[in-house]
Design a protein that fits this description.
heterodimer; A: 422 residues; mainly beta; 17-stranded mixed sheet; 5 helices; 17 strands; 14% helix; 42% strand; B: 258 residues; alpha/beta; Rossmann fold; four-stranded antiparallel sheet; 7 helices
Chain lengths: 422, 258
């Protein structure tokens, strides 16, 4: 179409999108989704999705590989009991799973994982299952491995699934979760890898009409963990809770990227990620994307990330992104902060006789406790808190050098609850 | 019988304009079972005295000694001072989100007493102490000071004072922000703690109204970082009448009246 010289329509300049924000492409238009890894460029830090990622530390996951047997996955119940007949577990070929895949891979890592995974582990929950299902993912060596897990809660089913990652591994893992209409599902992925482990991949989540999905990620161990969570809805009046807890030790990189897409009316989403960092070159990244599409009036969305930097030399990246394409919404808010221990809190507790280290533990305990309770799996609550306490003990056993206020961490309390209408 | 001796205490604080001397040689001795009121105009350094004694990192000690039964408090960390028997009731108690009052109090009592109180006696002691201060039992489950009103925070300070049983309590403007009923309840708590433990009290206050409820044995006037006058309870009455004007540099005025 040629433009008439009489009518000067504004045109967006792709090199300067902010000059004409109304004509900026929606991230939904931009995003590539494909099962073919060749459709994605090799990740570099110049790409938006990888700008915080130490790509050189995960580059082995950028090229096709044949999955080794170093990682095993077994499914049982969290209390050790036999699988009830409400849960069907099977290994399926990728072509014939019998359940719809949630969506196509969203980046090269996910597409490579899809190509490398020999089959799918399908956990199909057909009726209410009061005891949590446990997927025990164990690493027995550092040969590259790929694992693809599909979790389905059938309509109106209530169930909980816990995926536990332990041992030593280099794993690309894809998890697809479907909470069908009216179901109430929780999926909790716990990363307690050994220090030599790497874990990349993504969780693709779809929530049916009037269904509730509580998706939790608890990352407490491993050298590099990089997970992206892509969630959308399959009908109105659904609820998404995405919770995250992480404790990053010296030299480790833990990255969590959440993408919430509101594509149906009157759904609610809450993203809450909290992390603590301790030690030289501890690095965490949280990027929280929320997209409210024109098809999603009445959306209520909120995302929050808080980081507690316990020592010098640790870096927390925290970036909320909101994209709102619908003026008729209930709310779209975000809050993000990176902070240190509050000296006044410590002094207050010390002035009551509590030694400094114990005071620090109390503060960190308090920082995480409520969120651990919200994860809502009593069988693992205590263990998560105990692991957090142990990580903290290792952390405070190191010389306490964190009193300096030299600004290595951005104390960037940026609390905004936006009620945007445009 | 214990003694808290403050000898020629000097302290300064870092400000944008550089280091500022605030305490200019404080001398003061407090014995068990006596109540000293430290009264002075705003900015005289009386709160700095309270925080310096407790060991707040913001204040740098430049000289002098603070001896509790001969032990130099200034060489101790804040928690060691508390375990040695010092307690500071703060004007603005700090909120500690996520840490429940009950957990915090038990941790503090365990630290100060050197062993954990038995669950049964502890629960009883806590609920009775809270009841005496007319505190809702629900407060025990709430985060430390979080969302407490001014009056509730002060009651929580006195609750800690009663449970920790210090040898010496420093009360920093404990009367500020309290209505008459809350002032009476809080004062009763302080008097009860003194009766039960024989502690000595250093009460920092700008106004005289709390002295109607907590009777001082000795009243000190504090100005420009020093004790400038010492007398009996009658000195407070004089301050109530005349204010602090005569202790201030010429040309400035301030009233001691509430």
């Amino acid at each position: 179409m040629t433009s008439s010289p009489e009518i000067a329509m504004p045109a967006a300049d792709p090199k300067d999108p902010y000059a004409m924000p109304a004509l900026m492409p929606s991230s939904a238009d931009r995003a590539i989704r494909s099962f073919d890894y060749a459709d994605f460029d090799i990740p570099t830090r110049k790409q938006e999705d990888f700008r915080y990622t130490p790509v050189e530390r995960v580059e082995e996951f950028f090229q096709p590989f044949a999955s080794s047997d170093d990682v095993t996955a077994t499914v049982g119940m969290i209390d050790g009991s036999a699988l009830p007949d409400t849960v069907t577990v099977r290994t399926a070929s990728k072509e014939e799973t019998g359940v719809p895949a949630v969506g196509e891979p969203a980046d090269r890592i996910e597409a490579i994982e899809w190509a490398a995974a020999p089959s799918e582990l399908v956990i199909d929950i057909r009726a209410d299952t009061p005891t949590p299902v446990l997927v025990d993912v164990s690493g027995h060596g550092l040969d590259l491995a790929a694992l693809h897990i599909v979790i389905v809660a059938r309509p109106h089913v209530r169930a909980d699934v816990v995926i536990e990652h332990t041992g030593s591994a280099r794993l690309a893992e894809g998890v697809e979760v479907t909470a069908m209409q009216g179901s109430e599902l929780s999926v909790t992925s716990v990363q307690e890898w050994n220090d030599d482990s790497k874990h990349v991949g993504g969780h693709r989540l779809r929530i049916g009409a009037e269904a509730t999905l509580r998706h939790s990620v608890v990352t407490l161990g491993g050298d590099v963990v990089r997970l992206r969570m892509d969630q959308d809805f399959d009908g109105p009046h659904a609820k998404s809770d995405m919770l995250g807890i992480y404790f990053v030790g010296a030299g480790k990189h833990y990255e969590h990227r959440t993408m919430v897409v509101h594509n149906h009316p009157e759904c609610m989403s809450r993203v809450i990620y909290k992390g603590a960092l301790s030690g030289e070159h501890a690095h965490s990244t949280w990027v929280g994307n929320a997209l409210i599409e024109p098809t999603a009036p009445g959306t209520d969305s909120y995302e929050l990330n808080r980081n507690l930097v316990l020592t010098k030399g640790a870096i927390a990246d925290s970036e909320p992104n909101l994209e709102i394409e619908n003026g008729n919404i209930v709310g779209a808010g975000h809050a993000s902060s990176v902070g240190r221990f509050d000296e006044e809190q410590l002094f207050y507790m010390e002035s009551r006789g509590v030694p400094e280290r114990q005071a620090r533990k109390l503060v960190v305990h308090g920082f995480f406790k409520e969120l651990v309770d919200q994860v809502g799996i009593p069988q693992i609550d205590d263990r998560i808190m105990a692991t957090l306490d142990a990580r903290l003990d290792e952390s405070v056993a190191a010389p306490i050098a964190e009193k300096a206020d030299d600004g290595t961490a951005n104390n960037n309390e940026n609390y905004a609850h936006n009620q945007e209408e445009n | 019988m214990s003694t808290l001796e403050i000898k020629d205490l000097r302290a300064s604080v870092e400000t944008k304009e550089g280091r500022k001397q605030i305490l200019n040689g404080v001398n003061l001795t407090i014995e068990s079972n006596t109540t000293h009121a430290i009264m002075g105009p705003n900015g005289s350094g009386k709160s700095t005295l309270a925080y310096t004694l407790a060991g707040h990192p913001k204040y740098q000690v430049d000289g002098g000694e603070v001896l509790l039964d001969g032990q130099n408090l200034l060489e101790m960390t804040p928690d060691e001072r508390a375990r040695a028997g010092l307690f500071l009731a703060m004007q603005y108690p700090v909120e500690v989100p996520g840490v429940s009052m009950t957990n915090f109090l038990r941790t503090a009592v365990t630290a100060v007493q050197g062993k954990a109180p038995s669950i049964r006696t502890w629960t009883k002691e806590l609920s009775e102490a809270m009841e005496r201060l007319r505190m809702d039992p629900k407060f025990a489950q709430r985060s430390v000071n979080e969302g407490f009103s001014g009056g509730e925070k002060k009651r929580a300070e006195v609750l800690q004072l009663e449970l920790l049983r210090p040898k010496f309590a420093i009360l920093d403007e404990t009367d500020s922000g309290l209505d008459v009923d809350a002032l009476r309840i809080v004062s009763e708590g302080v008097n009860r703690a003194k009766e039960n433990t024989g502690m000595g009290i250093m009460m920092v206050t700008h106004y005289t109204r709390i002295l109607k409820y907590i009777k001082p044995d000795v009243v000190h006037v504090f100005a420009h970082g020093q004790v400038v006058e010492t007398g009996g309870p009658e000195l407070a009455d004089v301050l109530e009448e005349e204010g602090y004007d005569k202790y201030l540099p010429e040309g400035t005025t301030e009233s001691a009246l509430a």
